[in-house]
Design brief:
Layout: H1 2-44, H2 46-57, E1 58-63, E2 70-71, E3 77-89, H3 97-108, H4 112-119, E4 127-130, H5 135-143, E5 149-152, E6 155-158, H6 166-177, H7 181-188, E7 196-202, H8 204-213, E8 216-217, E9 223-225, E10 229-239, H9 246-249, E11 251-252, E12 258-259, H10 261-265, H11 267-270, E13 275-280, E14 294-296, E15 304-305, H12 310-327, E16 331-338, E17 344-350, H13 363-368, H14 370-373, H15 378-386, H16 389-392, H17 402-412, E18 420-423, E19 426-429, E20 432-435, E21 442-445, H18 446-451, H19 455-462, H20 467-476, E22 494-495, H21 507-513, E23 519-520, H22 523-534, E24 538-539, H23 547-550, E25 558-559, H24 563-578, H25 581-586, E26 593-603, E27 606-620, E28 627-634, H26 642-660, H27 662-665, H28 690-700, E29 704-706, E30 714-718, E31 732-737, E32 746-748, H29 757-766, E33 770-775, E34 778-783, E35 789-791, E36 795-801
Parallel strand pairs: 2-15, 29-31, 33-36
Antiparallel strand pairs: 1-13, 2-3, 3-7, 3-10, 4-6, 5-6, 8-9, 11-12, 13-14, 16-17, 16-28, 18-21, 19-20, 22-23, 24-25, 26-27, 27-28, 30-31, 32-35, 34-36
């Protein structure tokens, strides 16, 4: 008995201890579960929960940063920002989507279907639908695997944009959650409650007109809403002269980032840093007016300065336009460069396009490039128009290349300027006969062979050079590779070293290289290479951005040929102009040397007998070259040669450049029309807000007034044509109107006689009139006559004569 009691006393405490241990284990397990749950809630799933909370309570509104301005070397503004509006819609607030879509598509030139889709977009964020979902009900809801439906922490969420069948979702969950079908369906099809961009860079007056036209009022006439429209501050890029320097500047796209030209290549510098505005909203996504806003201010982009001189650029623009009209070309390109520095002071091509309306295919481009555009979509046609011929046009240089062949041969000492070659009118190389287009010349010196552009003579010169050595010169002159100029779309050209099956050099191909056939270059490559020939042999990388902007000095030039060889080549190129009576007459009074080029185009595997590229390179003064000009005509009309088509344009442009900088070049002025240094060109103001137009004119120092007989906030006409040289004794009169009425009403026909095709077109289109062209050259007569009052949109027939 005592023994049993003792056993019981021993067992009792032990059982109690076990109970305590069991309880502790259970508590520990519970604690672990709690910790795991907390970890899951606060760490694993916290990001998503925090995101949803922020999305539901805070709205972010992006603020576009103003882009930096673009200036020419003289400080003239070429591109700057103009105040504009971004037309946005909050789909959740739209009361009449069909009416709104019709207004926006009509007034903004957009497709009705695209606008309707944007203003009907569903909410993309998770929204709370029910906050009291039990665990058992949650399991049932999730078992359906409905896209866009989730349950977390007893909260039911819908993401409407992800829900594929809102009707089924609403029907199924209505019974399971004891909620009304209508409520669930409304939440499952809820529209986006943040702003959706319809179109940016909209004229302020037009944007305000759109907003006011969508005002919804109550019975008392009080405005209740604007049918979901919300206007935000925006910027629109303005180019002060429309078609001016199109290929240099480029433009900005719908996202306000740079496209083409320096707008693209220097986008990171110009674009700045966008800002953002945060404000609090309620559970329904409506802005809480009393809450504090948090603003991260945008940082404006930096300005850049180009090497371009606007006045010389204007000369070049006019020169290529006149050459294009005279020779009925596919295109004309001109480059004016400082020979020693490689700085491009002008780069112009015709046809070009309007930077203030870059999404409209230029009519002139569509006409001259019709064959290339056949079968392309509208977008593909625009892409073709945006290509800068100065850096992307690949062609065989023809006889301008002879200056490079001659330089290499002289530098290597295989010939001297007085070495003789013989031209019978042709030369046989292998199985091929190479003809001379300017001979026979009989016995002639190397100097004369280059000056007379004698193909057989150049063949004999290149045959004295080791091919490996010759091609090394070609590469040193920068051919076969991009120059690296700060413009997009640059091509590298083509330098083929064709050889026979046994590896030997193909003698025929090598021979034709001597006069620029069988290789392909770009205009910027060719002018840079020829510059090195006359610049004491130094090759300088071309640039269009000032050192001030780059923050660096120009790259050190490399010497390809000696100063002696360069001097000899300058004398040879003096003869090129001196041996041609027409070029001698054109350059009278100036010290100009140059080299012509005429080359058949290589099309579909064969040389064309009807399509040519003509070119002319010139430099001045010969004794110490300061400027060089290179002009290329693509497919001029029959009978065109480098000496007859490209040379007159290039020499005239050189003379104007020298006159403009006469104080620097010590060359006396002669009786030629030249833009004076420091002169101001009239900007293109049509379509701009009147206040912004006034700021541009004030900045340029141009006197102006607004036509008292007109009213409105937008400039619809200007009394002085775009790109005209401003006379300080005159005043430009701006006609005003609404941005939507630029094609309605009447206008007085201006006098366009004596204007070029381009200038007449810019003046008439600026007034809302259409130019109809007969002939080419300069305007000699017009119908209707000047001062006639006509409806905007009327045709003006103008006859042009050389």
């Amino acid at each position: 008995m005592n023994r049993r009691k003792k056993a019981q006393r021993e067992i009792g405490p032990l059982s109690k201890q076990k109970k305590i241990v069991l309880i502790m284990v259970i508590l520990s397990l519970c604690l672990i579960v709690v910790i795991v749950r907390l970890f899951s809630l606060q760490i694993v799933n916290s990001a998503g929960k925090y995101e949803r909370q922020v999305d539901q309570l805070v709205e972010e509104v992006p603020i576009t940063a103003s882009r930096g301005d673009i200036y020419d070397r003289n400080g003239n503004v070429l591109a700057k920002d103009s105040s504009a509006s971004a037309v946005n819609v909050v789909p959740f607030e739209v009361k009449d989507p069909e009416r709104l879509a019709n207004t926006l598509s009509t007034k903004l030139g957009l497709k009705y279907e695209d606008v309707l889709a944007k203003i009907s977009v569903l909410e993309d964020d998770a929204i709370e639908v029910d906050t009291a979902v039990s665990s058992a009900t949650a399991v049932t809801v999730l078992s359906h695997n409905f896209p866009g439906v989730s349950v977390e922490d007893d909260v039911l969420y819908f993401k409407p944009k992800s829900i594929t069948d809102p009707n089924t979702v609403a029907k199924t969950l209505a019974s399971e959650l004891d909620l009304k079908y209508d409520t669930l369906y409304e939440e499952a099809t809820r529209k986006e409650n943040t702003t959706v961009l319809i179109k940016g860079q909209v004229d302020n007056a037009l944007a305000l007109d759109i907003k006011n036209s969508e005002a919804i009022t109550d019975a008392s006439g009080n405005i209740q809403s604007y049918n979901g429209i919300e206007l935000l501050d925006d910027y629109r890029r303005y180019y002060t002269n429309g078609n001016f320097a199109s290929y240099i500047l480029g433009f900005t796209g719908a996202d306000y980032s740079g496209r083409y030209g320096v707008e693209s290549t220097y986008n990171d510098v110009l674009s700045g840093e966008n800002g953002v505005l945060y404000y609090q909203k309620d559970a329904d996504g409506n802005k809480i007016a009393s809450q504090t806003k948090i603003l991260k201010a945008p940082v404006q982009g930096k300005d850049i300065t180009l090497t371009i001189d606007s006045n010389i650029q204007l000369m070049a623009e006019k020169a290529v336009a006149e050459a294009a009209a005279t020779w009925q070309t596919k295109s004309v390109t001109a480059i004016v460069m400082e020979t020693k520095t490689g700085q491009v002071v002008a780069m112009a091509s015709n046809p070009n396009y309007n930077l203030n309306d870059p999404n409209t295919l230029d009519a002139n481009f569509a006409s001259t490039h019709a064959e290339d555009l056949t079968g392309l979509t509208d977008s593909e046609k625009l892409l073709e128009m945006y290509q800068n011929p100065a850096v992307s046009f690949i062609y065989e240089p023809g006889s301008t290349f002879k200056a490079l062949t001659g330089s290499a041969a002289l530098e290597e000492g295989v010939v001297t300027p007085d070495t003789t070659v013989y031209c019978s009118g042709s030369i046989q190389v292998g199985d091929a006969i190479i003809n001379c287009s300017t001979g026979p010349h009989g016995t002639e010196t190397v100097s004369d062979a280059i000056a007379y552009s004698c193909n057989p003579g150049l063949v004999q010169i290149i045959e004295k050079l080791d091919p490996d050595v010759f091609f090394q010169y070609v590469y040193n002159f920068g051919l076969g590779q991009r120059t690296g100029i700060e413009l997009d779309g640059e091509e590298s050209g083509i330098i083929n070293r064709l050889s026979k099956a046994n590896g030997e050099i193909n003698q025929v191909d090598y021979a034709t290289f001597s006069f620029g056939q069988g290789l392909a270059v770009t205009p910027i490559q060719m002018v840079s290479a020829l510059n090195s020939v006359v610049n004491n042999g130094y090759y300088v990388k071309p640039t269009i951005i000032s050192n001030e902007t780059k923050g660096t000095q120009t790259e050190s030039p490399k010497q390809i040929i000696s100063t002696e060889t360069s001097l000899a080549m300058r004398e040879i190129m003096r003869k090129v102009v001196g041996y041609d009576s027409s070029m001698t007459a054109l350059s009278e009074g100036y010290s100009i040397g140059g080299k012509t080029g005429t080359a058949e185009k290589f099309i579909d595997g064969a040389y064309s007998t009807t399509k040519y590229v003509t070119s002319f390179y010139c430099f001045a003064p010969i004794e110490d070259p300061k400027y060089s000009v290179y002009v290329v005509l693509d497919e001029p009309k029959a009978g065109a040669y480098g000496s007859t088509s490209a040379a007159p344009t290039a020499i005239s442009l050189m003379e104007q450049t020298l006159n403009y900088n006469s104080a620097d070049t010590n060359i006396n002025d002669v009786s030629t029309e030249a833009v004076q240094k420091g002169s101001i060109t009239v900007p293109d103001l049509v379509g701009q807000n009147k206040d912004f137009a006034a700021s541009i004119l004030n900045e340029k120092g141009i006197k102006y007034s607004f036509d008292a007989t007109t009213s409105g906030s937008t400039v619809v006409s200007q009394s002085i044509p775009t790109n005209s040289v401003y006379d300080s004794s005159t005043e430009i009169v701006l006609g005003l109107g609404d941005s939507t009425s630029s094609t309605s009403g009447t206008v007085v026909v201006p006098d366009v006689t004596k204007l070029s095709i381009q200038s007449a077109n810019e003046l008439l289109t600026g007034l809302g009139l259409n130019l109809k062209i007969t002939g080419n050259g300069f305007a000699s007569s017009q119908t209707p006559a000047a001062t006639t009052v006509v409806e905007k949109g009327s045709d003006v027939n103008v006859t042009f004569t050389p």
